[in-house]
Here is the input.
Amino acid sequence: MGPLNERMKKYQRDRQGDIKFDITWNTLGEYLDTLVSRGVSTNIASFVSAATIRANEVGLDNRAPTAGELDRMRADVREAMDEGALGLTTALIYIPGVFAKTEELVELAKVASASGGMYISHMRSEGDRLLEAIDETLTIARKAQIRAEIYHLKASGKSNWTKLDQAIAKIEGARRDGLEITADMYTYTAGSTGLDAAMPPWVQEGGYDAWARRLRDPKVRERVRREMVTAQGQWENLLLAAGGEGTLLVGFKNEALRGYTGKTLATVAKLRNRSVEDTAMDLVVEDGSRVQVVYFLMSEDNVKRQIRLPWVSFGSDAASMSAEGVFLKTSTHPRAYGNFARLLGRYVRDEHVIPLEEAIRKLTSFPATSLRIKDRGQLTPGYFADIVVFDPTTVGDHATYERPHQYATGVRDVWVNGVQVLKDGGHTGQKPGRVVRGPGWKAADAGK
Here is the structure.
């Protein structure tokens, strides 16, 4: 959400779906302050995205930044860190992040490191090149001398499930060598993103309009179709890993297509008498968006193995939403509602994967420490009173892939900054959420 130039603001407005809002801010800090001024029940914090910074200075083109652009990109990171960003984040299977080379990321990470921030990455691969992607993350951490975290650690695609042992060994080896490396995960065997993760980056260069225009060209479609079904190491192909039967359609912008919500891509392909690949391309063009989907990719045994790792915390990897109103117009991944309660109910109480005390640590003090969030994450005098009261005998998730818009239960009361926002399971109407600033913010503030 920042830094944004006018071109980026227009692009974001044009891509808005059911939820429409005016973009009145320019920087990441201004965006976070805008949320708080409108009123939020939870605290909010953010990393600054290397892809957003790249788009701000370079655009959506596949090229290296010039020396001048890279200098401005460094300055953008520094400004975001001064505003309180927790660090630098990357998403390296999506444009324009996929176009960034390792050294570019090292240079930006150095700036975040100088402010005490961390580098957190949706790596270049979670499947066929998982181990190479971990190597890149470790390289960036070493060269930039920065703490690093892997977003939603996983081994995607059945042929890659056995790589988890090697992945863990790489990370634990780096930890023994003194690197501060952590990871987070969600408690499901399916991920969720768009059909952009089913097509090569070159066809998406320049953004959605250029992508859709290319997909209308029969010659381009022929090449895309061929690359969509060919195993290769150049880009992350989640459709090839999940298959048409393992790709669930959940989010459309075009209301005329919403009848396909909850159906697999393979089912819709049969209904349209088209191939899976052509159907994916058709839907992207017809919907005016990348189309949100759920990909079934992971092993349940691996999920449990990761839950046990002491250096892994948990993240929903999903938006915060209500089971009402505009949110019900499209489907979503059940993790948006169930990720944390699923840990406490299924994996702690029912299956005894880890003890309750360890789960609480992984949900509270551990991530607060990893993110360098001061005075939060523990029940300690003088800390902010962010408190959750739940019943360990009843806490659990109810959201499913078929019916994801269902709240978890068993959480009775919640206080944020000492103000009760949930009482006996119901919202109190209070919105005491604040911006939680990263470690660079106080250093910047002290000089004012």
Observations:
- The mean pLDDT is 96.
